[in-house]
Amino acid sequence: MAIIVRLDVVLALRKVKSKDLATAIGITEANLSLLKSGKVKGIRFATLEAICRELNCQPGDLLEHQPD
Amino acid sequence: MNKPSIARSARRLRLTVLVSIALIVAIYLLGQFGPQLGPIRVESHEEAGNALALLLLVVALARLAQMLGAVADGPLFGSRVTQAFRGFALWLFLATLVDVLAAPAIVLARTLAAGGGTAALRFELHGLLMLAGTLFLFLVARLLEHARTIEAELEEIV
Question: How far is residue B60's CA from residue B86's CA, in Å, rounded to a whole number?
Fold first, then answer.
């Protein structure tokens, strides 16, 4: 897909564990893992907002468009 | 009712449906070709479209058995379940449709083949009610299948 999820990079930069983020934003670790690997069809604005709030970042830091 | 007990009930019900299919087929075959079994004699009063309606009913029951198998295997509201349920409802509706319309259709065809004229088409109220009931069941089953598809898509959005 042309949209690349950069969540793992932002997590590493902020030194936040996936488990902690999942707990903080109220989704399962399994779903967060699927999101990190880009294996989901979409992300809710509520989830995106919660991630941005917890990691103190912008949506653009998490998602990148790479033309095919 | 918890999941294992639902699975157990589904398996039992599936077995009942399979036995019913076997009984229906056996009774039909006995009526057609069977010898007299002691004091028991199975008679068949064949009406137009009976065999086809029976065949469609057996297909519907087979789809019902598939649905119950899918319920037992899980997930309870999975796409296999809703697809098989829609299939069951469709075949049941077709069986009822054939049962209700076969006789009038034959009367109409005979009248037309004889060069026209008037034909009295007879419909039984209970047949029409059954037809409406199975049609609504099919529409509900189709709605559930669409709902399952949307649900599956939403499950992939985090």
Answer: 10
Q: What percent of chain B has pLDDT over 70?
A: 92
The pLDDT of B123-133, averaged and rounded, is 93
A40 touches chain B (CB under 8 A): yes
d(CA A3, CA A38): 8
Q: In chain A, which residues have their Cβ closer than 8 Å to the Cβ of B154?
A: none
Q: Quote the crossing angle between the two packed helices A45-55 and A7-14, to the nearest 10°.
A: 20
Tell me the per-residue pLDDT of B17-41, one tens digit each, with 9 for 90 and over. 999 999 999 888 888 877 676 777 7
User: Whole-model pTM?
Assistant: 0.73
Residues A7-27 pLDDT 10s: 999 999 999 999 999 999 999
Which amino acid is it at A48? L
- Across the interface, do B157 and A31 touch by the CB < 8 Å criterion? no
CB contact under 8 A, B153 and A47: no
Which tokens hold the place of A23? 């707990």
The pLDDT assigned to A46 comes to 95
Closest among B122, B71, B69 to B100, alpha carbons compared: B122
Here the contacts of A60-67 (C-beta below 8 Å, separation 24 or greater) are A61/A6, A61/A10, A62/A5, A62/A6, A62/A7, A62/A10, A63/A3, A63/A4, A63/A5, A63/A6, A64/A3, A64/A4, A64/A6, A65/A2, A65/A3, A65/A4, A66/A2, A66/A3, A66/A4, A67/A2
Q: If contacts are CB pairs under 8 Å, which of residues 138-157 in chain B contact chain A?
A: 153, 156-157
